[in-house]
Design brief:
Essential for normal male fertility and for progressive motility of spermatozoa. One of its GO terms (molecular function) is ATP binding. This protein has 23 helices and 22 strands. The strands form 6 sheets. Strands 1, 2, 6, 7, 8, 9, 12, 13, 14, 15 and 16 form an 11-stranded mixed sheet that branches. Strands 3-4-5 form a 3-stranded antiparallel sheet, covered by helices on one side. A two-stranded antiparallel sheet has the order 10-11. Bound molecules: adenosine-5'-triphosphate. Adenosine-5'-triphosphate binds next to helix 4. Adenosine-5'-triphosphate (ATP) binds next to helix 4.
């Protein structure tokens, strides 16, 4: 479990996992030498790994378990009467060796007080042979370092004591430790793993340095036990060796970090047995607690289904978090007494050891990368590759190619080249190197994105942008409203369905059934519908003045063209309006009809009025379409005639050939077949016919493309005409004029695009109030009219904007661009 968690960690920090070793914690049992070894009770298997405990019923300790007599434990080795060296060989040697390869290692001694834990871990100082695992480990570490000349290994050491849940730095007395530093130790746990905050670590270059630290720690342990009145054997001690191994080859940026924890646990005997009290009781309580937490942690670690491991329950388990299985080679030495009298604690120790053995390990060596070395290596590599490239260029006669990053001048040059290439003044852009190619593409991208922005800006300027749902609603409404007119008035390709007449804006009729504002727009009161609604029309409509472009050129309604036409038209109209305002006598005010006219009649008027220009284009395009179709028919007929001629001639030739065959062929001296004149003429004719056929067919193909193109233009015109009509109709008959006036200043929305019911309902109340005010004020205070009028208009405007709030964002969003062109005159809402 812990191993899996460690794996996740290592991947997160992007280190390289060299190899994974899956196994369990190794457990050895070491018996303290005794002449009274209980041979009948403790039996060791021939494999030296199996330990059987057999208790006789009459044994005085059978109170331990009077039901069970036999226990069997399977461990990794039984060390009886083993020398310190043998113990080290069996327990520690490979762990230490692996630590230098980057694997973490932990060796731990567990057992009852006096069973030999400290002897095993630290050993005795009187006799060199009795030195324990720690001094031997230090020796092995420095020897192995000496044997690895290609590696630069740094060794650091710390020594921690945990006594009654308090942490002590056993090396805090070393001269290099800053005594002013906060000595409060705390176990911390972050992405680097577990460490003790405030614990001093000491760089050591020799075995002797390291041993000094060990002894300093041991001494401090004893002194502290006197000063603080604590029993040194009642604490847990963790001696840690930190290793960091770099390659001496500078080009190798990989390095490993590992640590070896050497743990001497406090005596594990049970509280009840000691019958202790006071200080001893307190110590025993802490030890028991921490050891039982250790046991719980071990049980949890052994259970692969457990997600949570209670490491933080005690200082000991927390400090050993990354040393108990997981990404660590862990070895436990279970120290026991050999005497029968201690069998109870021996059994307890063996049970603990067996549980420990179940903890899985997934030991991983992690390679780190030294960033400085990596950068240096890459720089070297780049320099080398550049040299290679220069040599290569010389060999293929490509001199003076620069591989450095492009400077601003070079980029500007490339930009100019790309622009010239795009406008056609440069045929090719010579390839120089990869950087230049990349910059060329980059410039293409820049230009493309600039153009996209420009196009979008132009479209936004020209069209009202609606979001899709609005557009769909609009189209549906549009279709419904115009279905009658559409069926009857548009869509006939022969051109008879439209009353097309083009009236220049300057010569617009003066009256209109739409009853629009005086001076804003000419009114055509002579239209049939208008006559019904307003019979006193003052002027008949003028004949439209057609200024058609050359018939040989197709008329398109590309956005650009329409723009220019619209601008021209608007300018003309403005001029016309100004002229009317300054020169013409005031026209008779024509009021808007109380109910909107039928759309069919209105459409006729529209085509003569605002829609005249587009109607003209539509008509001309359709005329061209009809002409091209007629030509297509003609050519098709011609082709059919030629085909008929080809078939006949081919038949005649076959007959001639058959005749020749029947009569016997004449062969010339050169071996060629001789034919008569008729046959010769037939061949010539067939050739001519085929030539004609090909020519006519090519012409037909061209015409076909032309017809398709014309058809598209006609369709576009038709659609545009309908859309404009719709807007015009709404503005002219459905949307109250005051609403249009109010919105005139806002100038960004055309009312023809909005659902009419919404517009009307917006201003009903305001309109009523306004009329009432007008009435009252004109009577009493005519001079206040402007003020109140402005106020009312402002209120109306705000009401409108409030109601329209939901329409505003949609114009900012990219969406469907509708054909509601804003720059067609005259609309109080339209703007260029
Ligand atoms: N294998 C051994 N060979 C010789 N002497 C030993 C051996 N094991 C233990 N002893 C001796 O037994 C005594 C108690 O051993 P030690 O202090 O190592 O026990 P301990 O388990 O560490 O006890 P504590 O829990 O009190 O620290 C010491 O005097 C030690 O020298």
């Amino acid at each position: 479990m812990a191993g899996r968690r460690n794996m996740v960690f290592s991947l997160r920090v992007k280190k390289l996992v060299m190899s994974v070793k899956n196994s369990n914690i190794s457990v050895f049992v070491r018996v303290r030498p005794t002449p009274e070894f209980a041979q009948e009770i403790i039996k060791v298997g021939t494999d030296n790994k199996t330990i059987d405990i057999h208790l006789r019923r009459d044994h005085k300790n059978d109170v331990v378990n009077n039901k069970r007599q036999d226990w069997s434990f399977k461990l990794d080795g039984f060390l009886h009467n083993a020398s310190q060296e043998d113990v080290y060989e069996a327990v520690a040697k490979s762990v230490v060796s692996k630590a230098l390869d980057g694997y973490n290692g932990t060796i731990m001694c567990y057992g009852q007080t006096g069973a030999g834990k400290t002897f095993t871990m630290t050993g005795a100082t009187e006799n060199y042979k009795h030195r324990g695992i720690i001094p031997r480990t230090l020796q092995q570490v420095f020897r192995e370092i000496e044997n690895r000349p290609d590696q630069a290994v740094t060794v650091r050491i710390s020594y921690l004591e945990i006594y009654n849940e308090n942490l002590f730095d056993l090396l805090s007395t070393m001269p290099e430790v800053d005594i002013n530093q906060d000595t409060q130790l705390a176990i911390a746990d972050d992405s680097r793993g577990v460490f003790v905050k405030g614990l001093s670590t000491h760089l050591t270059r020799h075995e002797e340095d390291a041993l000094n630290l060990l002894f300093e720690g041991e001494t401090n342990r004893i002194i502290a036990s006197h000063m603080l009145n604590k029993n040194s054997s009642r604490s847990h001690c963790i001696f840690t060796i930190y290793l960091e191994s770099h390659s001496r080859t500078l080009s190798n940026a990989k390095y490993t970090i590992s640590k070896i924890n050497l743990v001497d646990l406090a005596g594990s005997e049970r509280l009840g047995k000691t019958g202790s009290e006071g200080q001893i009781l307190k110590e025993a309580t802490y030890i028991n607690k921490s050891l039982s937490f250790l046991e719980q942690t071990i049980i949890a670690l052994a259970d692969r289904s457990r997600d949570h491991i209670p490491f933080r329950q005690s200082k000991l388990t927390h400090a050993l978090k990354d040393s108990l299985g997981g990404n660590c080679q862990t070895v436990l030495v279970a120290n026991i007494y050999g005497e029968a009298t201690q069998i109870e604690e021996t059994l307890s120790t063996l049970r603990f050891a067996t549980r420990m053995k179940c903890i899985p390990t997934e030991c991983v060596a992690i390679e780190h990368f030294d960033p400085e070395r990596t950068v240096k290596n890459l720089e070297k590599e780049i320099a080398l590759l550049k040299q290679e490239l220069i040599k290569h260029d010389i060999l293929v006669n490509r001199t003076l190619v620069n591989y450095e990053p492009l400077n601003e001048t070079q980029i500007a040059n490339i930009k100019t080249q790309v622009r010239r290439y795009l406008d056609g003044s440069l045929d090719e852009i010579d390839i120089v190197n990869v950087r230049q190619i990349q910059e060329v593409f980059n410039q293409f991208k820049v230009i493309l994105s600039q153009q996209e922005q420009e196009v979008e800006a132009r479209l936004r300027h020209k069209y009202t942008v609606m979001d899709k749902s609005e557009a769909a609603a609009f189209v549906a409404a549009h279709k419904a409203a115009l279905s009658d007119a559409e069926r009857q008035l548009v869509g006939e390709v022969d051109g008879h369905g439209f009353g097309i007449g083009v009236a220049p804006l300057s010569s617009k009729p003066t009256g209109s059934l739409s009853g629009r504002k005086k001076g804003k727009k000419s009114k055509d009161m002579s239209s049939p519908v208008a006559k019904k609604e307003a019979p006193a029309s003052p002027a008949p409509p003028k004949e439209p003045e057609v200024t058609s472009p050359s018939k040989t050129n197709l008329l398109t309604i590309s956005a650009k063209e329409m723009d220019s036409k619209d601008v021209l038209a608007r300018e003309q109209e403005v001029a016309s309006v100004e002229t009317q305002q300054s020169e013409s006598p005031p026209k008779v005010e024509v009021t808007r009809p109380s109910s909107p006219p039928p759309k069919m009649a209105a459409f006729e008027e529209f085509k003569n009025e605002r829609g005249s220009e587009i109607n003209r284009i539509f008509k001309e395009n359709k005329a061209i379409l009809i002409d091209r179709k007629a030509k297509m028919r003609e050519i098709t007929q011609t082709i059919n005639i030629i085909k008929y001629g080809i078939d006949n001639t081919t038949q005649a030739l076959s007959a001639k050939a058959q005749e020749r065959e029947n009569q016997g062929e004449y062969i010339s001296d050169e071996g060629q077949t001789i034919i008569d004149e008729d046959e010769f003429n037939l061949i010539v004719r067939l050739k001519d016919l085929k030539k004609q056929y090909r020519a006519e067919y090519d012409q037909l193909r061209g015409l076909k493309a032309e017809v398709q193109y014309c058809q598209r233009l006609v369709d576009q015109c038709r659609q545009r005409l309908l859309t404009e009509f719709d807007i015009w109709y709404n503005e002219s008959f459905l949307i109250p004029e005051n609403v249009q006036n109010v919105l005139k200043e806002g100038d960004t929305i055309r009312p023809g695009l909005l659902p009419v019911d919404k517009i009307v309902s917006l201003c009903d109340d305001d309109q009523e109030r306004f009329e009432q005010l007008q009435h009252d004020l004109f009577v009493d205070q005519p001079e206040a009219f402007a003020f109140y009028s402005a106020k009312i208009k402002s209120d109306q405007r705000h009401n409108y904007l409030k109601a329209m709030a939901k329409y505003y964002p949609m114009r900012k969003k990219p969406g469907v661009i509708t054909a509601a062109v804003r720059n067609k005159p005259p609309s109080v809402f339209s703007s260029a």
